[in-house]
Design goal:
heterodimer; A: Glutaredoxin; 2 domains; 5-stranded mixed sheet; B: Glutaredoxin; 23 helices; 14 strands
Amino acid sequence: MSSHQEDLRQRIRQAIAGQPQPTVTILSSLLAVQDALGWLPAEAIEEVATRTGATINDVWAVASFYTNFRFSPPGPHTVEVCWGPTCHLLGAQAILQAVQEAVGLPGEGDTPDGRYSLKLNTCLGACAQAPALALGHRIYGRMTPETARRLVEGVNQGEAS
Amino acid sequence: MSTYATLEQEARSQWEALQGRPWLRVGMAICGRSAGAQEVLDALRRALERHGLPATLTPVGCLGLCFAEPLVDIQKPGRPRIFYQRVTPQSAEALVEDYLLRDNPRPDLALGTLGGQVAGIPPLEEHPAWKPQVRIATRNCGTVEPANLWHYIANGGYRGLAKVLAEMKPAQVIEEVSKSGLRGRGGAAFPTGTKWNFLARAPGPTKYILVNCEEGDPGAFNDKGILESDPFTLIEGCTIAGYATGASKGYVFIRHGHEGPITLTRKAIAEAYKAGLLGQNILGSGFSFDMEVVLTGESYVSGEETALMEAIEGKRAMPRSRPPFPAQVGLWGKPSNINNVKTLSYVPEIVAKGGAWFAGIGTERSKGTAIVCLSGHITRPGWYEVPFGLTLRQVVEGIGGGTSTGRPIKLLQTGGPLGGVLGAERLDIALDFDGMAQAGAIFGSGGVIVADDTTCAVDMVRNLVAFCQFESCGKCFPCRLGFTHMLEVLERIATGQGRPADLEAMRTIGQAMSLGSLCGHGQLGFNPVQSALRFCADDFRIHIEEGRCPTGACRPVLSLPRRTRPQPVGGWYARHAYAHH
């Protein structure tokens, strides 16, 4: 086993073992790994199965059910555009279009250069500031197509400089 | 061992210490943060440091006046609180220099005052968005530092629990809650006292109170709002529920990713343990109760009460068959009650002030207050706690200030996506669980999305059904396939390809869904279409007969997400899926 793989397993085990709450389950362990790595590699499914005494099938069943889990590494910039009904009424489709153009994607997914991951979110919970999008963990409200475009482009330039 | 008296004394002295110098509070709940409150907080901190001003700067939760975010509340010693609206980093610096240094309260930047008069600034008590409010569950929101136990106790917190433990038997607590007329605020409106009685009668000693803060309904943000602004009111309410029902532990169920409510609730629970308000032998009473935050992944159906138990157990959030009901066989097979955050947040005040006091607010069958979340084409989006009995018009036009576009209202979308829509002609019905149900809508979790007359009902319903399709858990095929099929039909209609038989086809699908689904997600699945057909039949007719959208909202739009199963990772899944590890 390569040292890279061993290192990955180590991080996964740490994430599973380091959960602060008393109740540890398949789901809580998967969430902990996703928080630590940003995605669930196959090794995570195996480690969670080992830890919780479940089968790989049981763990995969849970991982494939919840829509926040990823099975490939995300880009450094994750953009989530809200398409809840409030955002929809206030122009989410135009925001989405602007973001898609800014990152060069036709829909959800990762850019070929690996810089951006674009996701649609059923509701970010910021309905009073709609339309909203999230960059990483931060939510931005009262978006226009123009401010959304600048925000998304800016985050990449910010890192490049 | 702490007693309530010693805790109260400590809280009072801490609260009084705050009044001795300028106190700046910044709304840092999700609405504030998404409007730029972090930059405002940073600017205030820099300005205070630069001028060497002794002042307290506190991030607080949400006052509910989201339209005014970022909101800064400045209280100088002996003066009323002044709320400044739409503060920017620049105006934040100006406030420090003008009001704190030079004593110019800058009426031009102010929204209103609370607790006194300041020349040139209207009292918030007279503001149309504040005046009709009766703040019970939200009484501390935006005023106290969330997860600060001393702030909570100094504002009357934990006197309810102290009274319950010192003076009341569990059955008396349930009786008081029954007397209050409190009904569940998660959507079903079931009488809380009755529900607690089911659990109290179930055999112990291991029983659970499950607090539902999944809050997946787009347009509803009041559960997360309470936890982000005043988590102790929920923790105290949950502890009282535990005492009343003989439960041993409470779980607060929150969706992963909502960092504000998660972090603050966890912190508040830790503080409560430290003060002896959770854990063994609470306040020396002999009563013990534990609490913990558990997270769910992204899944709307995990907010359904039996699916929620599956998710806490770490499985797929798919509903269970009932019976057995959760009060007999619930989480990990133990008797359980599922209560919404808002429901339990009323409880401390109900026991402190008495059930009769609460029952005196609201209408005959809907007691107390409604916490309404306004969003959409509305001048003043936010969340507002008002007595039941106000009409929707009073809420939308009075509090909300009417449409932000100045155009007439066409639709209200209430109670989450499955609540469907309500036409503007029903604006004069009263806010009331049963009255709204009779009008063909549900009050649900309190979300009211306002849509003006540029909205096309077909486009709106397509969005709602796309949400429901995406969020179907997939357990019952009438729901899983029904939403998919209904969405295809709606997309056809939206793009002018509709056929006369389409409406009948959707009705047939809806009937099958309602008969053949285990939970409300499928059972109510036809509601969005049915309600839109009731109020906006013309929109559908014009689409189908003339092949055009009457408002132009159904432009060729980007497609909405559709739920499919994720692809297995390479050949790995196929190789390992059935291997026992």
